[in-house]
Amino acid sequence: MRITRIAVTGFALAMVTTVTLAGVGVASADPTPPPGPVTITLSPEQVTFFCERVTKIEKRVAKLTERINGGADVKGSTAWLKARAQKERDAGRETSAKLLEERAERRAGRIDQLNKIKAFATDFNSKYCGGK
């Protein structure tokens, strides 16, 4: 009885594998060329929604850039992080000072990404939102 179940299970598995491989063979034998360019039209409500989102993104990028480039008195700026690192170093906490310096370097490295986002948002806004 046990051998019969194993044989039936093995046969079923072989059939599933054969059917699966046959389906793959048929799919790969009939290459379909990729479709040409597709035109997508948006409703006026959708365009308004995207324009509002892009405007919010522009404002947020401007605030982030201003904060990152701020002076030592601006919480979260690279200068503020470096000043905190110096305080930590003066207090003898070299490990935390090093971590703060690394964070300041990473944060300063985000400026390039933010400038790319701002350029894209400005371009999108001028093309599709009437330069709002």
Structure report:
This protein is mainly α and 132 residues long. The protein has a domain at 44-128. The protein is built from four helices and no strands. The chain has helices at 2-29, 44-68, 78-90, 94-128. α2 (44-68) packs antiparallel against α4 (94-128) and α3 (78-90) runs antiparallel to α4 (94-128). The longest helix has 35 residues, at 94-128. The N and C termini lie far apart (78 Å).
- Encode the helix/strand succession as letters: HHHH
Strand content: under 5%
The biggest sheet, with number of strands, parallel, antiparallel or mixed sense and barrel status, is: none
User: What's the number of helices?
Assistant: 4
Percent range of helical residues: over 70%
What is the terminal separation in angstroms? 78 Å
pLDDT averaged over residues:
80
What is the 3D shape? elongated
Spans with pLDDT under 50 lasting ≥5 residues? Answer: 1-25
The helix/strand class is: mainly alpha
DSSP strand count:
0
Radius of gyration: 30 Å
SSE layout:
Elements: H1 2-29, H2 44-68, H3 78-90, H4 94-128
Helix pairs in contact: 2-4, 3-4
Brief rundown of the structure:
The chain is elongated. With 132 residues, the protein is mainly alpha-helical.
Give descriptors for this structure:
132 residues, mainly alpha, 4 helices, 0% strand, disordered N terminus
